[in-house]
Structure formats: C-alpha cells, structure tokens
C-alpha cells in the first residue's frame, strides 16, 4: 500500500501538523463510482412482495436532500457541452451524536473529512476522481447558509472548515470557483452511517505493508492482511499519525485504498440471493446519504445510475490535487501551479489529464 500525505490547512480550530522530511509515493488507484450500487439496491428492495412499497418508502425517506442550485444561484461556472458529469463527494465527520462515540476525538462542529471531485467523461468508460486535501488553503467565496445568513468571502482558509462554517452548498461553490468546473451533483456520506454500512456487509479486507499505530484514531494494525469491522474501518480512513510524516497526505492514500476495497466487497455480496441482506445494506447506505435535491430519492438515484452504466470501474483513476507546502505555514498546503490549473482545465474540456498534472510537490512521506 502506498501512502499519500497531504498537509492540510485549517482555520483557527485546526491543530498544527509537521511537514515530512522525505518523499513518499502517492497512490494512483482505480476506483469505482458507488452510485450504481445504491440504485441497484433500491430496485432490488422492490422484490420484497407485499411489503415492497413500505420498504421502498422507508429507504426513500432515509435520503436527505440539499437544494444546491437555490443556495448558490447563478454565480457558477458554465456547464460546457463537453464536460461530461462532475460529482462532488464528501465524507462528513461531525464528531457529535453517533459520530462522537466512534472515537475519543473532541472536535466541535462538522467537517468534510474527505473530498472527491469525480469526473465521468461524456460517452466514455473511463473516469477519474480527484482528492482535495482537506488542509488545503483556499479562498472561500461569499456564501449563504441554510438559515439565510451570509458568510463573507475569506482568503487562506482551510478547505475542510468551510463545511462546518457555511454548509455543503458553500463547499460546492468553493470547489467550483477554485476549479472552474461545474458540479452536476453532490453526494455526502456521514461517517457514522459509513461504519454501519461496513458492519452490514460483514467487514472489509485491507492489506498494509507496514505497522500502523495511531493513538489519535485508535487504529493498531500490524503489517499484513486484516478484516476490518465498521469501527476499525472508520479508524483506518481517519488515520494520519501512524503513517508517513503524520500529515493528511498519508491519510488520502489510505482512504483511496479503503474505498476500493469497500466497493469491491459490496460487489461480491450475493444481494439477489439474500433479500434480507439487501435491505439491511440499502438501509445503512441510504441513511448515511445526503445528496443534491435532484438525486434525493431512490428513483432519481436509479435513473442517474443507469446513465453511468457505460463506466468501466477497472479504468477509474484516483489522483490527488497537486499541492505544495505553503511558504508562510509549512503545516499547510496550497494548490501547486501550473499542475493544478492543468488538471482542472483537462476536466473542464474533457481531455486527457497530463501526467505532469498528477504530480504533487508536497508528498508528506
């Protein structure tokens, strides 16, 4: 397993992190889009006979929706005819309520612990997911919270602080303004629900090439292959202190590896042969989801998933937004130029991403 480390920047509430002194490999992995999984689960639930409608309604009611278009308005990049489909996927971590019991962390507010821009080229089978390091210093645009209050624009704020301060629509707006790429959809997965999903499928198998001992996340693994339950899986994707230089660049590598293992495990499940398991998994997955309002139902998710049937999971690539250590605060990173601009341009124009745009000066190894 290769470790990707990305020092991350934060607002005042973010702890300091040290910069690594040696280079590390950044994992470029194949990655499935899991949206087809959910839509298939929703359809399968309908085979439950007389209780089918009740089950469908129950699952449908699990999904929470956010009206991104209304919240952002017209201040968005133009949707280009050649830009394919672009989806912002966030893993949120409130460390409150159900999430508070998942580890001993004492962190106020919700954060977007994981951020991916998934680009699906028009009419082709290849896709790419771009990881945005959560500690990247960015310019936050002026935004409107869900309660209607305004949030002023600010420079040099940590990317993952935007979610807690201004909500998901502001994260979408920030990504659009930093990339120039119009987001067609938004999908958020809550970490507490993520834990339940892993337990519902019976665990996920990962292989690590070094011992990992992280007191912050609670993860203790020896080098080798392990079957992780929900709690261990959450520790795995949160871990950063046990690998590389202790920054979040290493965590991105683990998250990429784990998501591939999770999607592979779901694919192996005999869902058609076990309606009970199908419902249990679908229940956990839908309960963990928040989407844009255009996707906030099983029917809409199914329709969207069918539109992605041509995507070949084996050709999906996951890379990290190229970043460099910030010159003022070496514990933070900023988008590396010209690599980042080349990457976003390729997504906007739906063209091949240059190899140079996949290389990050900050490796955090």
Offer a concise description of the structure.
The protein is of the alpha+beta class and 365 residues long. It contains eleven helices and 17 strands. The strands form six sheets. Strands 1-14-9-2-3-4-15 form a seven-stranded mixed sheet, sandwiched between helices. It has a two-stranded antiparallel sheet with strand order 5-8.
Model description:
- With 365 residues, the protein is of the alpha+beta class.
- It is 33% helix and 21% strand.
- The protein is built from 11 helices and 17 strands.
- It has helices spanning 35-45, 52-62, 68-72, 161-166, 168-179, 191-200, 230-238, 248-268, 275-287, 298-307, 339-349; strands spanning 64-66, 85-93, 111-120, 128-131, 137-140, 143-144, 150-151, 154-158, 185-190, 204-208, 212-214, 219-221, 224-228, 289-292, 317-320, 323-325, 333-335.
- The strands form 6 sheets. The protein has a 7-stranded mixed sheet, with helices on both faces. A two-stranded antiparallel sheet has the order 5-8.
- Strand 11 (212-214) and strand 12 form a beta hairpin.
- The radius of gyration is 19 Å and the shape is globular.
- The chain starts with 34 loop residues before the first helix and ends in a 16-residue tail after the last helix.
- The model is unreliable at 1-51, 95-100 and 102-109 (pLDDT under 50).
